[in-house]
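Re: weekly structure request thread

Next one in the queue (172 aa):
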Amino acid sequence: MFGDRMIVANATGCSSIYGGSAPTCPYTVNKEGHGPAWANSLFEDNAEFGYGINLAYAQRRSKLADVITKLAEEATEQTVKDAANAWLENRNDAEGSKAASAKLVALIENCKGNCPLSDLTNEIIKNKDCLVKKSIWIFGGDGWAYDIGYGGLDHVLASGHDVNVMVFDTEM
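Done, posted below.
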């Protein structure tokens, strides 16, 4: 559903067995070879681990938005201004950010370092992994969500941030 935009923070336990054990893996890649990013955390602090991923990603995107805003203001070529503004308008939309990112990166990479605003464009290319809006997920089992990790999970859910949670209820 979220493909290469998905980032998973997975609690050690039953959900890590479902999601990260060899020789099988429930995740797949697209035709470019890109798929979800998956990381495993301690059982008790997985909610905080996933929340930290989300906060770090949000901070990096915020700084990137500042750089792209400056590019939109200072660029002399209208195509660059339009591409930068299109990303700014669509940065919080999954498919919109993907399309706008592709256009912006293509324009910047075609400059090949000869852009008059190379400091800005270099910063964008350096952080292009943050251009497309990600879907952050926190996975865990019922023991994590209903017992040892509920305090952290409650904190994350109360934060109001755009974080998704999946609880695998395996209790009989």
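The first helix runs from residue 14 to 20. The chain has a mean pLDDT of 89.
Next request, please.
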